[in-house]
Design goal:
Arc Repressor Mutant, subunit A, 3-stranded antiparallel beta sheet, 2 domains, Dna Ligase, domain 1, globular, alpha+beta, 18% strand
Length: 142
């Protein structure tokens, strides 16, 4: 297991315990090629002999979100998923098998945001952009 304690900031006035559950959650999210749900994380914890209830998992996820270590988002299925907060990106989602992949867009999106702000006198705080379709495996299946 890699040292991922640097993903949690420690303000001088507060000392946070780096628990085994928190460590495993960060480890799973860091090594995963796709965003994970709380249910996914709870299953992985159980496989690693850390039996915790869903309240504990959500409490740890809230803590990590508040630390700006992870990001939460929901897709059309309403399931909250989590991933390490590293860089701004979007996702492709296969509507058949549910595969989720991260994709980066070029800088044109930033210029579009600036146009939207200017033309609509609107301050954008964040945006969500996901692409839905069929992955290459599902396209091949007849």
């Amino acid at each position: 297991m890699q040292n991922i304690s640097h993903l949690i900031s420690k303000p001088k006035d507060k000392l946070y315990r780096f628990s085994a559950v928190r460590n495993f959650i960060l480890e799973f999210l860091t090594s995963s090629s796709k965003p994970l749900s709380a249910f996914d994380l709870q299953k992985m914890l159980k496989l690693n002999k850390l039996s915790v209830n869903k309240t504990t998992v959500y409490r740890e996820l809230d803590f990590l979100k508040n630390q700006n270590s992870i990001e939460e988002f929901k897709l059309d299925d309403g399931i909250r998923r989590y991933e390490i907060l590293s860089y701004h990106h979007h996702h492709t989602v296969c509507t058949k098998c549910g595969e989720i992949k991260c994709v980066e867009l070029n800088k044109d999106l930033e210029s579009q945001e600036k146009k939207i702000e200017k033309n609509n006198k609107f301050k954008i705080i964040s945006h969500s952009l996901e692409f839905y379709g069929l992955c290459h495996k599902c396209q091949a299946v007849k």
